[in-house]
Design a protein that fits this description.
This protein is α+β, with helices and mostly antiparallel strands and 540 residues long. It has 15 helices and 21 strands. β11 and β12 form a beta hairpin.
Length: 540
């Protein structure tokens, strides 16, 4: 039976440019749309946050503040080797250590690419391969943190070290030490694009994926009057949340309660219910306050599952908080990328072709891509993308604020500025010609006006930026109504993170006349770049 629908008018357009209405077909039970902001009583108005006082006074309860009666403290045993086979493991001495209530072996690690043969997911720890320094092997729960830490040292592991590779260029070589023993599969959104589909794999290189390509790029380059190209590199970036990853797991006969620093309570509930064979209505996930996540706290990772298993075995609540070293080793990261861009255009700026070839590494994970920014940002009928994962013996990547699009913008926006320079066009003018988004056009107009774009400073007028010179950040909210739902709500936080690195890189180019195509832009890289500037004679 077909769902009953009706037509409903929604606000549509940009408030400061042109605002009207659009009719949308919606379900018969859909609530009426909200009015524009000026007609609302709460949304868009400066009202106190309900958690503001608790946070500034220290009364807010974070996961690390949770204390339950009889609570145990857990620690994880991690591999000291970047690649090894576990020949044998003995937990007997650890289990007998005073204060120890439970020991669990981690035999089915998640969050990484999985070998097609599933050899790395068996219950017997003997034979398991550890793939990076920090790979979790076992967990201990004890009455004190000190007892848990001491027990870890009593776990006897017979490692058989294997060849490893940690450099992305070395890993691409045909004779590189293999990270995996065969083809892998899995899902990840670390690079902003799905990775679940089958892709070719040669050694440590999986791909390329070409989803999103369109048109005839060869024909587009043949029609070009101007071509620019360049290679850009971005590095691994860890989330480094102010509050570390933490969990308190409380397994009881009537169900599981998990106190956890997470961005996605429903997702964690669903994962744990499936992993431990529980109905969803017997799993509760509680988060009161969270000290940052940025994409790294969206799932029930190995540490969470270890805490739950320990609680089930010990019959007591278990607290597990990662330290700063663990945060960098094994809680995810923004993958590193190498991007080769080639852009073709006519003299008026019209793009005729755009190709992006990338390879990146999410360690032993998947999804080291550059999102869809090059595919979607600028008008170009002929677009080709080829994205490959390169495996190295390092912890797996994970989504991080605007996955893929942050490194993708670093390359794309510098290449667009290069094109404007070659065409003799102002970079804002070129973008207005090739970007059909009215929202971004208005953003550029406001930004150019506020910073005095037409009066850009030269090198002599640039100031060395310190804390006192950092300008006040002005926030302008564009009322952009799309009529997509009754609330028309969508996220606005991540886009502000995307443009920062390329904006700085373009500003540096405008100041010194040479491109910095690699992050981080350290003083050493700047000096190296300046050394490549050809000397110029000075007329007297």
């Amino acid at each position: 039976m077909a769902t009953a629908t009706r037509l409903q008018n929604h606000p549509f357009g940009i408030r400061s440019v042109a605002l009207g209405e659009i009719a949308r077909e919606v379900a018969a039970g859909e609530p009426p749309p909200l009015g524009i902001n000026e007609k609302l009583a709460v949304i868009g108005k400066p009202i106190p946050r309900i958690d503001a006082r608790a946070k500034v006074t220290g009364a807010a309860k974070f996961t690390v503040d949770v204390k339950l009666p009889g609570m145990l403290h857990a620690r994880l045993l991690r591999s000291p080797h970047p690649h090894a086979r576990i020949a044998a493991i003995d937990i007997g001495a650890a289990a007998r250590h005073p204060g120890v209530r439970a020991v669990e072996l981690i035999t089915r690690p998640i969050g990484r690419a999985m070998e097609a043969s599933d050899e790395n997911t068996h219950a017997d720890p003997a034979g398991r391969h550890v793939l990076y320094v920090g790979d979790a092997i076992a967990a201990v729960a004890a009455t004190t943190p000190e007892a848990a830490q001491a027990a870890l040292a009593l776990i006897a592991v017979d490692y058989q070290p294997l060849p490893f590779v940690t450099d992305i260029e070395d890993a691409r070589r045909p004779d590189a030490s293999p990270v995996f023993r065969g083809p892998v599969h899995g899902e990840s959104f670390a690079g902003g694009i799905p990775t679940a589909g089958p892709l070719p794999q040669q050694g440590n290189v999986r791909g390329p994926g070409t989803a999103g390509s369109r048109g005839d790029v060869a024909q587009g380059f043949a029609q070009a009057e101007v071509i620019v190209e360049g290679e850009f590199r971005t590095q691994v970036q860890t989330h480094c949340c102010l509050e570390p990853h933490a969990v308190v797991a409380d397994w009881r006969p009537d169900g599981l309660t998990v106190y956890m620093s997470t961005q996605y309570t429903a997702g964690v509930r669903n994962e744990l219910a499936e992993a431990f064979g529980l109905p969803r209505n017997r799993v509760r996930v509680i988060v009161d306050a969270m000290g940052g996540g940025f994409g790294s706290k969206s799932g029930a990772g190995n540490y969470v599952r270890a805490a739950v298993a320990l609680s089930r075995r010990a019959g007591a609540p278990v607290r597990l908080v990662l330290d700063r070293e663990e945060e960098h080793l094994d809680t995810g990261n923004r993958p590193a990328t190498v991007q080769r861009l080639r852009i073709a255009a006519r003299h008026d700026g019209t793009l005729t072709a755009l190709s992006v070839e990338t390879y990146g590494t999410a360690g032993v994970g998947l999804g080291a891509g550059v999102g869809n920014i090059a595919q979607a940002m600028y008008d170009c009928e002929n677009f080709a993308i080829m994205q490959s994962d390169v495996f190295v013996n390092a912890g797996p990547g994970s989504p991080m604020r605007a996955p893929g699009n942050v490194p993708g913008a670093f390359g794309l926006e510098q290449a667009i500025d290069d094109l404007a320079d070659k065409l003799g066009l102002d970079p804002v003018t070129l973008r207005d010609r090739i970007d059909s988004s009215p929202v971004r056009r208005e953003e550029r107009r406001i930004g150019a006006t506020r910073i005095g774009w037409s009066r850009r400073a030269n090198l002599e007028q640039y100031k060395i930026l310190g804390s006192r010179e950092t300008p006040a950040i002005e926030v302008y909210l564009l009322e952009n109504y799309q009529g997509m739902s009754s609330t028309d709500a969508y996220g606005i936080a991540e886009p502000s993170n995307i443009a920062t690195a390329p904006a700085i890189a373009n500003a540096v180019y405008n100041a010194i006349g040479v491109r910095l195509r690699q992050l981080p832009m350290t003083p050493a890289h700047v000096l190296e770049a300046l050394g490549r500037v050809p000397s110029r004679s000075v007329s007297r």
